[in-house]
Structures are given as C-alpha cells and as structure tokens.
C-alpha cells in the first residue's frame, strides 16, 4: 500500500456560524420581550376568561424557556469553541438545544390541547374586547421577535483542511478561505419557529375572540386552542426530525455533497472506496475520503479538487495504491 502524505499545520476546530454572537444577542432581546408578553397574556387570559389567550400565554412560557436554552447553547458553544476536548468543535450544540426545545414544545402542545378539551366541557365566560386587545399586542411582540430572529442566510467564511494521522495522509492546508452559503442553524431555527408558532396562535386567538363576540360562539375559543396545539405539535415534530438527523450524522436524501465529492475526486485512475460526510455546524461539514488509485497523486492535488466545495471545513484523505 502506497500512501501520499504532506506535513501537517496547526489548526482549530471552530465550526460556528459567522453570525453566532449576533444571534446570541438577539435571542436574549427576544427572551425579554417574550417573558414580558407571557406574563401579560396569562394574567389577561385568567382575568378575561379566554382559553385561547391563556393557551397563548402558557405557550409563550414554553417559548421563553426554549429561548433560554437557545441562548445558553450559543453562549456555551462560543466559550468552548476551541476546547480540544470537543474533538470536532461545538458547532452541533445548537442542534442539541433545538432537539430539547422541540421536545418541550411538543409536551406543552399536548397540555394546551388537553386544557382546551376541558374548556369545551366546562365553558368559561369570556370578556372579548379586553382579551382581543392583549392578543393583538402579543401578535405585535411575536412579529417583532420573528424579525429579530430571521436567518438572512448571509455567507460566512469557513476553513477547509485535509487532516489525518498514522497511516492516513496528514495534511492541514493553509486555511483556504471560502464563502459557503450560510447553512441552516437549527438552534436559531428553533427560536424563530417558536415565535412564529406563537404569532400563529395569537392570530387564531384573535379570530376566535372576534367570531365569538359577533356570533356568540364561545365554544370556538377552545376549539382554536386545540387547532393551535396540533399546528405546534406538527412543527415540533419537524424540528425534532431535522435536529435529530444532525445529532446522529444522518444526511438527508437531498444532500448532494457526497456526490459532489465523488465527482471532484474520481477519475479513470482514482476511485473512492469509502466516504463519510457529516455536519459539524451551520455551513460546515466534515469528510473522510479513502481513495484507491493506479496513479496516486500528492495530497495537495486531491485537496485542490475539493477546493470548490465550500461547505467542506474538515477533510481527512487516505490514498492507497491499487494492486497490480
């Protein structure tokens, strides 16, 4: 077996997104807004007898808790981004936080649905005008929060380096600067969808209160609470699926990076015999590439072929001579 190797170069494993600190700051602002509105809606829902409004307030309490998880995950990932005990950095901590956040939200959605069912059996008198006013204010707060947390998909700079050890070719490049599309940050996505879901709940609460006041359909208020719970439950499942996939290194069927690596590397002489690709953080992927070749090239040549794949931030290449 013939291996081609080059000298290694020092490098870190900081695989955080470019807007990591900005997202952390904005999350704390949204937490303050959400917590304030949460207290107002729970109080108003209790005083004015609106289940939809009360459900929205308790739903916002889960948002506040989940957003705290989001902010703390950002902080911890930033402070430990260069801790060598995190072998591949802390970029996936956001996905862990998103998974936990979605789990909490799913549980609370079930509780909201149950409480709404109970209100169908035991109706409560509703003071519609006051409840609608509070719900409208809540909607404005949610829309402002969603605007603060919206991912603008800015580009960021990453670094790609081939690296191996022992029998693997061991080379760290000179930290080529790329501008990959800003990969989705599931931690930010969790926070963003939390406030969007609450905005939807606020809209449905206002509609239920408006129709209930106009036509005396007080039963519509808890029905809307049930519908809102189902919508939130569906959303939480989507986030559980997406963040969980990252945590177990699952690549979705529409992920074309493995095919792009094969297209870039393989020739008549070079064949990839083993390929592993996984996500390291927002916009960052790692890859282990095993190549068998009748005409082995220097590692720099294989690295050059991969240079256009800007999402690759950490690459290990093994080159083997094909037996005659």
Write out key terms for the chains shown.
324 residues, mainly alpha, Alpha-lytic protease prodomain-like, two-stranded antiparallel sheet, 8 helices, 5 strands, disordered N terminus
How is this structure best summarized?
This protein has eight helices and five strands, in the order ααααββαααββαβ.
Summarize the helices and strands and which ones pair or pack.
Layout: H1 20-48, H2 51-79, H3 93-121, H4 128-149, E1 158-160, E2 176-178, H5 186-215, H6 220-247, H7 257-265, E3 270-281, E4 284-293, H8 299-306, E5 312-321
User: What is the CATH superfamily label of the domain at 20-158 and 183-247?
Assistant: Cation efflux protein transmembrane domain
Radius of gyration: 25 Å
Q: Tell me the fraction of residues in β-strands, as a range.
A: 5-15%
Distance N terminus to C terminus? 11 Å
Mean pLDDT, all residues: 76
Give the helix level as a range of percent: 55-70%
Reading side by side through the largest sheet, how are the strands ordered? Answer: 3-4-5
What can be said about the biggest beta sheet?
A: 3 strands, mixed
* Poorly predicted spans: 1-8, 153-182
- CATH architecture type of the domain at 20-158 and 183-247: Up-down Bundle
State the secondary-structure class: mainly alpha
Specify the CATH class of the domain at 20-158 and 183-247: Mainly Alpha
- Cα shape: elongated
Element string (H = helix, E = strand): HHHHEEHHHEEHE
Question: In total, how many beta strands?
Answer: 5
- Under CATH, the topology of the domain at 20-158 and 183-247 can be stated as Alpha-lytic protease prodomain-like
Helix segment count? 8
